[in-house]
């Protein structure tokens, strides 16, 4: 009887309507509102806001540092996913759980941890200062904050593919005399590449928008350590909502393009 009730047309229609309303109110309307507001005074004010040297340099800096953080996460994340799936060792379950810690922690807490561990008063920061370079309030700290926040994406995208991989092709490669490196590059890597690409795109998109961790460790110097998200916050604080919306549209458009590409990669991976 419960199954019959769930299949009732009224219940199905109500459920779909609720989901669509939820999607429209929480996602579509805010996105449409940002686009509408950014162009509310025409193309010229929008272009002036976007082409402002401080804004443009903040966007370019964010893109550069997000790419660096994504490259680090692709390399380290692939290695960690491989270890978690292929090896059994004491503490593996704890390590596997800690991978999701950046999802659970407020990003500001992550920024505070970086500040305490790598700041001028820490032993790592003091050693770096004696060697002639600084971490906190410079670009390395921003990259570290982005890496911390986006850490789980690549790992969690690769793990299911490694777990579902048919071992016969790998065993056949070893039987034919291929080395571990050759087997990984020619047999394993093509099978996990959709996860690597999808996870990398998610990590890059998330790094572009990071604010909480970055604002504590960046220093926020224009053209040097001022990222796009912190620039947007500053524009809102300065009551320049149009400038904030214009830069937000750039980041939002880029994120939407990335999500579309992720969907394409996942579809191709599913067909293959």
What does this entry look like structurally?
By secondary structure, the protein is mainly alpha-helical. The chain has helices at residues 2-6, 9-38, 43-50, 53-86, 92-98, 101-104, 107-118, 123-131, 139-164, 167-175, 180-209, 212-217, 228-237, 241-271. It is 81% helix and 0% strand. Helix 3 crosses helix 14 (241-271). The chain is globular and about 65 Å long. The two termini are 41 Å apart. The model has no long low-confidence stretch (mean pLDDT 85). Belongs to the binding-protein-dependent transport system permease family. CysTW subfamily. Keywords: Cell membrane, Membrane, Molybdenum, Sulfate transport, Transmembrane, Transmembrane helix, Transport.
Secondary structure layout:
Elements lengths: L1 H5 L2 H30 L4 H8 L2 H34 L5 H7 L2 H4 L2 H12 L4 H9 L7 H26 L2 H9 L4 H30 L2 H6 L10 H10 L3 H31 L1
Helix pairs in contact: 2-14, 3-14, 4-9, 4-11, 7-9, 9-11, 10-11, 11-14, 13-14
Shape: globular
* Range of helix content: over 70%
Low-confidence stretches: none
Give the structural class. Answer: mainly alpha
**What is the distance, rounded to the nearest whole angstrom, between the alpha carbons of the first and last residues?**
41 Å
Order of helices and strands: HHHHHHHHHHHHHH
Radius of gyration: 23 Å
Number of β-strand runs: 0
β-sheet strand percentage? under 5%
- The helix count comes to 14
Task: Give a short account of the largest sheet.
Answer: none
Averaged pLDDT, please? 85
InterPro entries: CysT_permease, MetI-like, MetI-like_sf, ModB_ABC, Sulph_transpt2
Transmembrane segments: 20-38, 58-85, 97-117, 137-155, 241-262
Subcellular location: Cell membrane; Membrane
Membrane topology: Multi-pass membrane protein
């Amino acid at each position: 009887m419960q199954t019959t009730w769930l299949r009732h047309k009224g219940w199905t229609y109500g459920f779909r309507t609720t989901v669509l309303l939820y999607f429209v109110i929480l996602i579509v309307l805010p996105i449409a509102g940002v686009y509408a507001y950014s162009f509310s005074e025409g193309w010229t004010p929008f272009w002036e806001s976007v082409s402002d040297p401080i804004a443009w340099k903040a966007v370019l800096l964010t893109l550069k540092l997000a790419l660096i953080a994504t490259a680090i996460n692709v390399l380290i994340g692939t290695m960690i996913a491989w270890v978690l799936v292929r090896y059994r060792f004491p503490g593996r379950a704890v390590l596997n759980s800690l991978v999701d810690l950046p999802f659970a922690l407020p990003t500001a807490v992550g920024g505070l941890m970086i500040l305490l561990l790598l700041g001028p008063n820490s032993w790592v920061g003091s050693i770096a200062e004696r060697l002639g370079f600084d971490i906190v309030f410079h670009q390395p700290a921003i990259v570290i904050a982005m890496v911390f926040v986006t850490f789980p994406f690549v790992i969690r995208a690769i793990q299911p593919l490694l777990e579902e991989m048919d071992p016969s092709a790998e065993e056949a490669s070893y039987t034919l005399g291929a080395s571990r490196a050759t087997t990984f590059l020619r047999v394993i890597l093509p099978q996990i590449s959709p996860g690597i690409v999808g996870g990398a795109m998610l990590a890059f998109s998330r790094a572009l928008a990071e604010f909480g961790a970055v604002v504590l460790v960046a220093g926020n110097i224009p053209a040097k350590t001022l990222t796009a998200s912190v620039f947007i916050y500053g524009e809102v604080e300065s009551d320049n909502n149009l400038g904030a919306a214009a830069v937000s549209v750039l980041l939002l458009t880029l994120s939407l393009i990335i999500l579309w590409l992720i969907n394409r990669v996942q579809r191709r991976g599913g067909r293959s």
